[in-house]
Fold these 2 entries.
Entry 1:
Amino acid sequence: MSGIDACQGCGVRILDPETGVIVARSSRGYAVTIGLVRCGRIWFCPECSAAIRRGRTEELKTGALRWLAQGGILAVVVLTARHNRTTDLARLAAALWGEPKLDARGNPVLDRSGKPRRVPGAYQRMLTDPAFYGRPEAVSWWERKDGSFGHSVRPAVPGIRHHIGYAGMVRASEVTRSQANGYHPHMNCLVFLGATLDGTPAKGTVTGYFDPTAEDLEAWEGWLRDFWAATLRKMDPAFEPTTECFERDCKCGGKGHGVMVKIVRSADDAALIEYLTKVQDGKPPADSVAADLDAATGAAMETVRADNKTGRGRKSMTPFQILYRLWDIEVRGTNPRLAEGYGRPDQLRAWWAEYEDAFAGRRAIEWTRGLRGHVHLVGDDSEEGDLEFVYAGAAKEPLTGGVVLTGDAYGTVERTDAEKEMEDVVVREFYDSVGDMVSSLGGRADHVRIATAEELADVQAAMLERLQTKAAKRRAEALMLRLRGELADALKALPADAPPAAAEALHADFFRKLIAAQNPTAPVPAQPQPAALETPAETP
């Protein structure tokens, strides 16, 4: 089904043949499978997506809690575009999130450092627009005819971000598909507001907190609605969302359907409760969101957990529901009229291929630069980080019991597409029945062993230690490559007549950063003062 090699092999190959595969019941009542190679593709693999989004939710929940506790406020923002059944999903995704810049022959255009350049989408343009970001101070120098130099200073101009205390945002992208209007990509954003900054959001430091005025927040929302619609209109008039609505009792309140903003001033704010406790997947609203933890969890889940959402009945589907419907029809033999969702198998395959083509290589969840530091978190949005959530999440999950299968036994289950049935048996804690199931499928019952919670905890501890060691090695290698690249770029940028001390200062800074990253508690050598050089203006 998938055209992505990593997805085709996900959950098939065994990590450690000696350990085998563990299928266990978590303390929260769902099945956990440990010991298989995973693809880590958040867009295209249901199992990996769930694990990654669970991990990212916890990360965002922590950040939101800390921000509110420190005195900041949050804004939940939803951004979307106009679309219909004939809209090309790849073109719409490019308009929203950008795309690689290509030359006339279709080859990637590279920047001076050799990295592929990108054409920004509406999201990137929103963050860098001068009206929002402001303009830094600029100094211009010129040489007079007598050989002396003159200069002029353009003073800094504050932008909207200064008035609302913008410190960054977390963007989580989602896609659904409706029978009436085709694919519907949109963004859920959690925006961190109410901070005073020394420097820029990406490179500065939070020095305090304040409560933006209602007028400033309304001005930001009004600018955002107008900017979003105008930017998408320039890219394609068919993508321009509405900025006003005359539908009676519409949830947009007459403001149009391209942008929705909810301000959150405390963890039990009424606006947060109203927005985050809406019914999803047929589940009732949470019993309480008054506690900080519950509210922050809700904010994080609404932003990140696309895997936890479903479409509406037979008229709307998530991409994973496309797979589930195809599975029900072609594997289970379910009557198409009784299977969840809509569409013939040939349509479902075409829709999935279109989805893969549009979202391969895109980030589903992204923190703006510097934001993690403002809430005292480490980590990144890389695929390597996603894989850590996939493996480490299973290794940390408290387990109440389960079974260990040899490679042959699990292979029997996998070849007969019986993984789901086996997980159902384990969730119900009928561990003795797993051996009988494997035997009925043509395998050997003695290749299945029941494991206690204590045995599973030992296996998890050993697995987590191996994962952490590998992750630390990958991070060290990535750090070395990044710092070497930064050093090379800085050395290239030195003027030809720069004194030797300038290059020495850059090398010293390289080692200072390397020592600080490898051992944060170690004393770090003082950074030598570099020779006076021209500093480029900072960018967001």
Note: The CA atoms of residues 225 and 259 lie 6 Å apart.
Entry 2:
Amino acid sequence: MASKKLTWLPDTWDMVFSIKTFMAAMLALFIALCFDLPNPYWAVTTVYIVAHPLSGASTSKAVYRLVGTAVGGAMSIVLVPNLVNAPELLTLAIALWVAFCLAISLLDRTPRSYGFMLAGYTTALTSFPLVNNPETVFTYTTSRVIEIFVAIICAAVINRVVFPRHAGPVLTARIDAWLGDACVLISAALDRRPEDPALVRTSRRLAAEAADIRMFTTHVSYDTSSHSDLVGASRELQGLMITLLPVVSGLVDVDAALASTGYEHAPAVKALIADAGEWMRTKEPISEERYRELLAPLEHLEVEAKSSSRWQDLLVLDFAARLRDLLEIWNECVALRQDIASGSRNARRVQSSGFAQATARPSHKDYGMALFSGFSAALAIVLGTVFWIMTGWSSGAGAPVIAGILICFFAAMDNPTPMIRKFTIFSMIAIVLSFIFVFALMPVLTGFSSLVLALSFLFLPLGVLIARPSTFLLGMALSANIPTMLTLQSRPSFDLASFLNTNLSTILGTLMAIGIAAVVRSVGAEWSARRLLKAAWTDIAMVARKSQKRDPEALLYTMLDRLSLMVPRLGSIAEGSAVIQADMLKDMRVGTSVADLQAYKGLLLADQRATVDKVLDAVASFYGERRRRPEAQPAQSLLQAVDTAIDAVRDPVRSSAVRKILMALVGLRHNLFPDADQLQDLEPLALREAAE
């Protein structure tokens, strides 16, 4: 019980972060007051919005906020003077601009997406309050940009000078944890324990974590530590981490196929697997000489398998290729991790897998949901503005602005309603605290120093809340609302009617956002996960069509990105759902095999190429049908097409391209038909030629 209570206590870094953030906010407030800027509270709010325990993350967020604010303000300068006499057109223009920016931010899905989203709702934030004074639009928007710039400079300076906490060591720790979990997964694969449910969850979690680490690296590039120079190495490592998962999954699959034939690994290969497991657990790179010694049994196994066309030997060749890729990728992972930790930049070997060298790493883009979310934000602004105009309420401009902002904030969620409801409760708490502060404390304060002292009792605890993930939303909601509600200005106002009107408008805006989110925007986790699966199946069908070509690298990254998006949703889906049973890693292996067939089939003879084309057509038909009926299973005709193609190209060959085709066909067979009878062996080529 005692340890449970201690978890609520802030640690030293939480308190340091809170003190630094408060220092930056008060410095920004002091500068804004000295230069008599019209709304100094914007500077305080901005400091807390961009605040982050890591210096690099705070700086990157600040840069995107400044750019987004400038773009949004410029759009206000364009729209308000030209459309102020046509309120319907002005409302529609602002709504469409917010919808467009939100859709772009959802498609981008990197930390810079914050800048796109901010460019949208900043226009609403700076336009609606000016409809009665359009001539002040330039001054108003310029002052907002200046106040935000002041806040960003103050936050950046304090964060970097006063006990800076760098993102680099955090990145290294996350990579270490990822490699530790990956080592457990690989050990289970090599020990033939692939069906452990905990390991299935581990593989899914590793996919999500790898994608998140890739996003986190953006913040490292803004860091002041030596790690900022190693962003390229970090991104290369993340590419290898993503590549590792399907390699492990494919190794498990082909090893299971081998086991079903009664095959047992030779003693030398078993020793290799044991040695590899021991080496991986050390998480240290090995020398080239030791690496060659480790692979010697594997090379001997490959030489024997290449001289045969038996089905079992084809599986052995596939197993050897996947194990080789696994060892090479792991060695590169731990070597790059060592470089990142030490700050060195050693030249790395080229990957045989090819995936890590991909320059373009596309991600999943859901255009339909992006447009739908944009429409929801536009609808919130339009309905809120209609309410404002119909009531003639002088403070009603806040309702459409707040409603649009909240829809934007939580647009990436399947069902944003619960979070907006929480935000509403937190806003009410902020109103109560602000009311007490404005009407009980501020009238007795005699100067800036006494104001800072009074604010410290309010904002220092809020900074601790922001620093802790479990209380981040509460801390951010309060710290973003309270400065505005306090109207921290050189000439404060104690008008009760104005205070109540403004904050009632805020509450109505949040209630409006809840209604629109519940009726229009909310979808289920299973619906979103099924949509991700169907997008993956559509991609595979497109790659399989003869008229469509796609690089295996692009398909790999897109599908693993979809898997990372699915993982957080799986916990909310019932166990019996078809989505839970789906194996996107297996679908991804099918997709990369299909991409290999498309890439290398042109090097085959005409009759061989025709058999491969039939396989591609059958795969395209299967995944097209699966998109319509998720429960669809591959037809027997697809198995026959694969077997025919394997028979056409499986004679012992010397060409690496033809061998690539053969391995892709073998992979398709044991992925799509794991329970099928083993393929019958052909007669040796010499006997067949003699018979002919």
Note: The two ends are 83 Å apart (CA to CA).
